[in-house]
Amino acid sequence: MLPPLTPPPPFALEIRGLVKRFERPAIDGLDLAVRRGEFYALLGPNGAGKTTTLRMIAGLLRPDAGSIHVAGIDALADPVAAKRVVAWISDEPMIYDKLTPREYLAFVAGLWGIEPALAETGAQELLSWLGLSANADERCEGFSKGMRQKVALAGALVHEPRVIILDEPLTGLDAGSARQVKSVLRERARAGGTIIMTTHILEVAERMADRIGVIAHGKLVAEGTLEELHRQAGNGHDASDGIGEGASLEDTFLALVAAPAAA
Amino acid sequence: MIQPGTAVWFAQHESRLAWRDWLSMMTAGRRERRRRLAIGIAIFVIVMHAVAYSVVGSFAAAPPDKQMLVGITVTLLLSWLLMVSQAMESMTRAFYARSDLDLILASPVKSHKVFAVRIATVALSVAMMALPLAAPFIDMLVVRGGARWLGAYGVIAAMGAAATALAVVLTVALFRAIGPKRTRLVAQVVAAVIGAGFVIGLQVAAILSYGTLSRGTVLQSDAVLALAPHAASVLWWPARAVIGDGIALLGVLVASLLLLGGAIAMVAPRFGDYAIAAAGTENSPASRTRRPAAFRATSPRRALRRKEWLLLRRDPWLVSQTLMQMLYLVPPAVLLWRGFAAGGGAFNLLVPVLVMAAGQLAGGLAWLTISGEDAPDLVATAPVTARVVLLAKIEAVLGIIALVFAPLLAALAIASPWHALVTASGIVIAASSATAIQLWFRSQAKRSQFRRRQVSSRVATFAEAFSSIAWAATAAVAAVNLWLAMAPALMALLVLAGARYLSPRKNS
Lengths: 263, 508
Hints:
The complex is a heterodimer of chains A (263) and B (508).
Chain A: E1 11-21, E2 25-35, E3 39-43, H1 50-57, E4 65-70, E5 73-74, H2 79-84, E6 86-89, H3 101-112, H4 116-129, H5 145-157, E7 163-167, H6 175-190, E8 194-198, H7 202-208, E9 211-216, E10 219-224, H8 226-234, H9 249-262
Helix pairs in contact in A: 3-4, 3-5, 8-9
Chain B: H1 7-27, H2 33-56, H3 66-96, H4 101-106, H5 111-145, H6 151-210, H7 215-219, H8 222-227, H9 237-242, H10 246-267, H11 271-280, H12 300-313, H13 316-323, H14 330-342, H15 346-371, H16 376-381, H17 386-415, H18 417-440, H19 453-456, H20 458-480, H21 486-502
Helix pairs in contact in B: 1-5, 2-5, 3-5, 3-6, 5-6, 5-10, 6-10, 6-11, 6-13, 6-14, 12-17, 14-15, 14-17, 15-17, 15-18, 15-20, 17-18, 18-20, 20-21
């Protein structure tokens, strides 16, 4: 008799009571849940704790308290299993100057233990998708920031992660490169992947994200679709604040992050 | 008030930057360490003066003879070659460092003034670098032999100027001959070969003539004294200047300053062009691989090992920096070759040299693979345990050590299996110890910062050196008497225990 099928967990990411202190609390009891197949944008002012949160999810930092579940896996109890389904891309693409993009992808595939034929096909598709086919066998040392970011993105996607975490992936990219990266990410989300991304470019969050979380002082201060955020920001504000009907995400964001500071 | 834009103003600017850079390097940027640094320097100065006092002995008051002139001249020549090597490194860095060049070249000031000051600063810094070791000896020579020895300070200044002049000419000649792209690597290799070549050449000569590793044997030989020029020759002027001949000192100073002035006049006006050409190499077309990478079935451990070897193989600068220590293996290799004929005792000298070289090479390689990881986030987010990553990196280091030392060990094994066994054991232990120290003191850095690794943790640097020396001593004694080797082995273990205790990772 076959074992009963367990339904896949509804959340790709579930964070409860996350705490991280450096000199002062960087993350202060954060709760966050992101659904499978969702494109989630995390916004917040500088020093709000966005990168710290993402680094803890990726297994690069250990929290002082709280829990992190990625695709139903307890990332603190079994970090290796969690890392298998997660990809991390930082704003500063860290790649090896002396490797070619193809060699870099072969190395990543080796680290994630991907079957070689599958990895090679995936790598070729990704390189072509990101417009890097012509540079596939050139060493990365002469690449521009945009090309390096695309190589890093290809590395993150070559092992078919279920959750993709990106910290400011569009910083420093030209319009063409940014469009390519956005298109690849949108495609992944459409194919069922979960994308969690921080960005300072509010227009990107507005146009790409299904839901937006606003973080300030290490806490989630607002969350929802754009309309929901407008409503949350509108509470307690009068028309002179510019919050409410027709307000831009920038107005809403500034109102939301200002509120806890004033409190 | 100094007029902005003048050479003096730039000199003040350069010296302020150099001072802050040195201070930050020595204190790791922490203000609270300044006091400790001052105390450390004071202790160093006192100890060095005490050592110098006992070493100079009767030499200070001895009348100058040909043997003394040969000794001083060779010491000066050796130091001067090291200065040329240092100056070449500094000049290469000055050409290729972008830092403030854009600002200088885009400003309306006459840039040749800045570059003239920059070359003069190199001369000054090269001379200053000789002082920590030379000054205590000169001071004690003055104390025991009289003020005539003060001329040695003037000779050091002259040597710095002449070494920089030659370095400038050599670097520019390379730039013109092989172009800016290759000059960076070749200049550094030439600098290292100049620095090491003289010492190694003397050792090889000593081995071929007398069968020992001692440089002194050759210098004091009748053959060298017979070949030396007449006592009135200009070639002795630097040595005569050191022992207080005022005319010789004046001649040496004037000649070297003229050389430096000439080099500055020749290069400073074109320095900007060279710097721009050097900057252009960053935008040159990327190298293509001849064979596209194969996606082969592999384990994460093997993928990591392979990546380390590939990165090292493709970085000639790093290879030259790490393998330059292997130049010092040339004399032992010659000794080994001679030993086949002479047999027995000569091999006892080889054992510690090989063990020491393995320890030092392993330290450099371990830093590159463990601390010098250029994509730390990628490796840290891979689904492999930290233990697997570290094991792969240690294997990568030991693999290279095995590759470098296997031929020498094989040759030694044919001549003396016992010495080969002791040396192989010593190499494995010394290399593992150096790797362990790098592991305990690991801190994330770019591979390009390799040259600064020795100042990032002085405890790690000293521990690595002392551990290699102690294991070399252990192997040397073990080759003769296994039981007596317990004492230096215990010392090596104490060094390792101390390093572990002081390391930031003792609780990890």
